[in-house]
Amino acid sequence: YVECPHCKEKIDIYGKGHTAEIAKKYGLKVLGEIPLRADISQAADEGKIETIENHYLDKAVKLIKSI
Prior knowledge:
The chain has helices at about 20-25, 40-45, 60-65, and strands at about 1-5, 10. By secondary structure, it is mostly helical. It has a two-stranded antiparallel sheet with strand order 1-2. Strand 1 and strand 2 (about 10) form a beta hairpin. The longest helix is centred in the last third of the chain and has 9 residues, at about 60-65. It is flat and about 35 Å long.
């Protein structure tokens, strides 16, 4: 999805995904979703993704720390 830079609205530009349904069907956890945002893409391209303030991967981090 794309995140509106003004209001933070989630915009499903390719239609609504079915990740949660498929994960549930197979007994898997959805660890997170990362929106298409210019600042995230730029940070990733520069190898500085850890500099982005976000909550998108909090579930994944929490799960990894619990292992």
